[in-house]
Amino acid sequence: MQPKTISDLLTQNIVLPEVEIKGWVRTFRANRFIALNDGSTLNNIQCVVDFENFDEALLKRITTGAAIHVKGELVESQGKGQKVEIQVSRLEVLGDSDPETYPIQPKKHSFEFLRENAHLRTRTNTFSAVMRLRSSLSFAIHKYFNESGFYYMHSPIITGSDAEGAGEMFKVSTLDEKNTPLTEDGKVDYSQDFFGKETNLTVSGQLEAETYAMSLGKVYTFGPTFRAENSNTSRHLAEFWMIEPEVAFMDLAGNMDLAEDFMKSVIKYILEHNREDLEFLDKRLQDEEKTKPQAERSEMTLIEKLNFVTDNHFKRVSYTEAIDILRNCKPNKKKKFKYLINEWGTDLQSEHERFLVEKHFKCPVILFDYPANIKAFYMRLNDDGKTVRAMDILFPGIGEIVGGAQREERLDVLKEKMTAINIPEEELWWYLDLRKFGTAVHSGFGLGFERLVMFATGMSNIRDVIPFPRTPQNAEF
Ligand code: 4AD
Ligand code: MG
Prior knowledge:
Elements: H1 6-12, E1 16-29, E2 33-37, E3 45-48, H2 56-60, E4 67-76, E5 84-95, H3 111-116, H4 125-147, E6 151-152, E7 158-159, E8 171-172, E9 199-201, H5 206-216, E10 218-226, E11 239-248, H6 252-273, H7 275-290, H8 302-311, E12 315-318, H9 319-328, H10 330-333, H11 350-361, E13 365-371, E14 387-395, E15 399-406, H12 411-420, H13 429-436, E16 442-448, H14 449-457
Parallel strand pairs: 3-5, 6-10, 12-13
Antiparallel strand pairs: 1-2, 1-4, 2-3, 4-5, 7-9, 8-9, 10-11, 11-16, 13-14, 14-15, 15-16
Helix pairs in contact: 4-6, 4-7, 4-14, 6-8
Bound molecules: 4-amino-1,4-dioxobutan-2-aminium adenosine-5'-monophosphate (4AD) and magnesium ion.
The site of 4-amino-1,4-dioxobutan-2-aminium adenosine-5'-monophosphate has 23 residues, from strand 11, strand 15, strand 16 and helix 14.
């Protein structure tokens, strides 16, 4: 049987003649009260020791960060703040912690400092709450797709293709760096590399997911993806996790319906199952907001924002309409935007996305029908010949959280687009085969998992919602 956790003891809230718990000491007060945490809940269990009954040398080892094992009676608490506590009868130190050098002191640490100590930061309330939510969200995602008849597909991590055509890839190679084999014309001879061709870490599992959608019908991937884009922002990682559903016979409207229903469902799940952690993070965010100037403060609390997504219809707006709104809006006219919107065809920046969501529509927004030349090659060209059936979902505080599209299912149009941007047919022959053998309308999207976790936890830096962030100049741990 699994041992009981602190969460079990606190939620059952009944007294018991004997319980035992293992955990890490948060604090030890007055040589009497140990606040013990085992990661199962935000809350510590209070362990009361009568110091007369224990060796002084043993009690000295009860320091913040130490791993201990306690046994005793679970009794009604005499003090405030908890209903039950453990009256300790046996106490054992499993692992000492040097109080002088243990980085996680019982005080407020900056997120910057905790990032440098990412191996220990989940011993704090904020990070344990964030990571429990991350775990819950991934469960909710699998649950949603499983209950909706989707198959979970594992797309490869090492690929020979650039799904997004943006060239932001990490190379995978075992060639000798000092003695790289070259071809006659002086280029690297990848035929001698491990895979006999140039390979990289995947930027998206979409292209492979399309092959499975065109046989199994409804599939999704959920795995790590890698981008060597040198954008050192609070919303970009070099390694992040993406959820990519792909569905045969579904058009762009169906894709939007799926994405909206999916997003609402996973957020509802955490509202129902992670209340305690959400309330803690809600309060944390409110405290943080208080330190900002009035004008920059969010109008909604974290839980209000989550309810706002589950309760509101996602507004669907074409790129063309959005550009009209942005061109004529105050911050554009008063030159408050860093990137001014002048003409149709420009790509939107996060400041524009956030303006649309937070100031103009005041609800989640799905932008669709983008100009073809700012979107990836695989998107379905509209009859106007200049826009594609793309869709991006924009969330308050985040901007783009989902990017997706109806896929180009016509062989000739797809070939033409690939030629135009120099993607050799030999590289994606298998992708083109899907258009030769039983092609059909199909669509899908990609949700950036860390952006979802940011939204759900109210954390403002993406480095704080993944265990060990990989960003330019940083791959510690
Ligand atoms: O918009 P993107 O680039 O779309 C795709 O990769 C498609 N193949 C998805 C599909 O249709 N199956 O990326 C999808 C999402 C973005 O909306 C964003 O949330 C997230 O992935 N994302 C990142 N998250 C963290 N760090 C980065 N560097 C990210 N780049 C994209
Ligand atoms: Mg995108």
